[in-house]
Amino acid sequence: METANHIRRLVVKVGTSTLIHASGKPNLRRINELVEILVDLSHNGIECILVSSGAIGIGMSHLRLGHRGKTLSEKQALAAVGQGLLMHLYERKFSEFGATAAQLLLTRDDLADRQRFLNARNTIHELLKLDVVPVINENDTVSVDEIRFGDNDSLAALVSILIDADLVILLTDVDGLYTDNPVTNPLAEKIHRVPAITEALEEMAGSAGSYVGTGGMKTKIEAAKIATSAGIPLVIASGEKPQLVYDIVEGKDVGTYFNAQAVTAHSRKSWIIYGARPLGTITIDDGAVEAITRKGKSLLPAGVVEVKGDFQQGDMVDIASTHGKIIAKGISNYAASDIDKIKGLHTTEIDQVLEGRSYDVVIHRDNMGLTH
Hints:
CATH architecture of the largest domain: 3-Layer(aba) Sandwich
Number of domains: 2
Number of strands: 15
Oligomer: single chain
Domain PUA: 280-363
Strand order of the largest sheet: 3-4-2-1-5-9-10-8
Largest sheet: 8 strands, mixed
Main location: cytoplasm
């Protein structure tokens, strides 16, 4: 496991249940402990980024509502109230320890657009240079269903890619990944280390009726998949004891540790795979799958079998096998309507169908990232 000597940039995500009492009021002791730890780590040369939930919960408490919002607009209103209160609380606590915090609110579209991705990256890097701790949350006040990250677990993983972090820690209401629901099954065992995320593990995390499905473990597995696939290890640990962050950074056996996978993709490829939302799907034959996944080739029109979606040139798309498995994502050189016309053709035949060949390939390998 990584040690403090290897960690220079850390992303810590904290969930609502860690920050807020059952009464709905802020858990000031835990917030204070968490802030103190992050400031102390920064004094030891580790740049810390905090991804924090809790805005809707604090807004609900402040307005004395008995629910977290029944409609999207109600949740957005609660977030608008709670986000300011939450950030004020963080600013006060960081200030007490002689540190400065800065708020960043992101939506998926901020990471789907390459320029906004780079702007966010540059802003965070500049804040870290100024010894400011970025406090990041999803922009719940403007997000809609199509652009929501869905959870701050995925947001934390995407942020880790955004700023090239060395480790992600998810502090949550469980102390790791178990083989079954430990509440109902006394024989359930905690999984201390996950060398690689398999389909079986993903199925277990999303199994109906299990604690991992209803308790949010599925989203944490997805976050781990995002981070580790980009070469960044991730730990799931209990948020009840923020002091565990020290143990994790020091390499002690805490929670469930997901090994980083070997990658060669630079930040552009990571952005392609995880940051952008695909606007369509290109289905390819087995030969094209082999060429892309094993030989690192570009996607030629001859390998295209089917096109779905109404995407345009320059849009992000999924690349799927004929079995329906998404094998890669990429930036299309052609609109969907044009790909439909040239699918199955050799490159030299494109001119006979389209007026002037813009590109020899449908998706260039430099604009493509493998998902498996």
